[in-house]
Amino acid sequence: MAYLYIMTIKQYGIIGYPLGHTMSPTLHNWGFEQFGLQAKYEAWPTPPDALDAFMTRFKKENYRGLSVTIPHKLTIMEYVDALTDRAQAVGAVNTLWWDNDTLMGDNTDVAGAVNPLRLKGGQLNSALILGAGGASRAAVAGCKELGIETISISNRTASKAAAIATDFAINTVDWDKRQDETPDLIINSTPLGMQGDLQSQTPWPFSFASTKIVFDLVYNPLETRLLQEAAQAGCETIQGLEMFVHQGLEQFRLWTGKALDLDGARNLVLEQLRY
Ligand code: NAP
């Protein structure tokens, strides 16, 4: 009987290396509980040279879904049967899920960028993305999906911004001239403002002119210097926590077909961040 019970538990998890503290197990295991699903989600630290063996086990033991983080977001692509449009646009995968017998790769960070902006509503004609790392590609893909007409990217290392600008057919702005821009939306995808040595810094130490929304992907602290100054200037703000929660909700939806309660998920993650 106990054996049968174990066999029916659907297995999910996250791989990365090193895999530090992650809020994903708490979020997804709470989700499974909410819907009474026989499923569990675990953290599997997996160094690069163990990825192949892990994926053999994933398929053999019929694991149902996987979150993928650094350093596997590119290398995992060779193990999937097909990519969603979002994963193709970003050029990286953070979620594996089964569509019948087809192992799909998606990038739910795009949903994490798009959904909080959709909830704000209103018309956005221009966006400036600060930073040109992995998260910025999801932010640019999200802006494209939202149909924002003029999208620009600015980065300390100009060549990295230029590479993304070429991939997505968007504009580049010199890091030293970014203050001349007057976008409707600013997205920070640098770590400036993050807890620790960078906390007192901001990627936008300038006035906000006509900017309507400022979205900071940094989520610790929740209220970064950038968000505080933007709110003082009258902009609407979106915390990095929203990106994390929405990308997690999208993973849960892909795996189970079910929509988790946004407020409940946010409160759960907030509680985790406090400890
Ligand atoms: P990444 O790939 O390492 O890219 C970091 C980017 O920030 C690079 O373009 C880098 O510029 C720039 N940068 C780093 N230090 C800087 C500094 N002192 N001054 C100016 N620019 C600087 O990192 P990522 O994965 O894209 O993550 C970026 C941020 O987003 C992190 O704070 C991360 O925590 C956050 N994030 C949040 C979520 C979420 O769910 N909310 C998800 C993913 C990431 P160079 O090219 O010049 O080095």
- The termini sit apart by 38 Å
Low-confidence stretches: none
Helix share, percent: 25-40%
Major sheet characteristics: 6 strands, mixed
Task: Give the helix tally.
Answer: 10
Which structural class is indicated by helix and strand composition?
alpha/beta
Ligands in the model, by name, code or SMILES, are: NADP nicotinamide-adenine-dinucleotide phosphate
Element order: H for helix, E for strand: HEHEHEEHEEHEHEHEEEHEHH
The pLDDT mean sits at 96
Q: What's the β-strand tally? A: 12
Strand content bin: 15-25%
Principal-axes geometry comes out as globular
With strands numbered from the N-terminus, the spatial order across the biggest sheet is 2-1-3-5-6-4
| Overall radius of gyration | 19 Å
Give an overview of the whole structure.
This protein has 275 residues and is of the alpha/beta class. It contains 10 helices and 12 strands. The longest helix is centred in the C-terminal third of the chain and has 17 residues, at 240-256. The protein binds NADP nicotinamide-adenine-dinucleotide phosphate. The site of NADP nicotinamide-adenine-dinucleotide phosphate has 24 residues, from helix 5, helix 6 and helix 9.
Task: Summarize it.
The chain has helices spanning 2-8, 24-34, 51-60, 85-90, 109-120, 134-145, 158-168, 225-232, 240-256, 262-274, and strands at residues 10-16, 39-45, 65-68, 82-83, 95-99, 102-106, 126-130, 150-154, 171-172, 185-188, 213-216, 236-238. The chain has 275 residues and is an alpha/beta fold. The strands form two sheets. The chain has a six-stranded mixed β-sheet. It has a six-stranded parallel β-sheet with strand order 9-8-7-10-11-12, with helices on both faces.
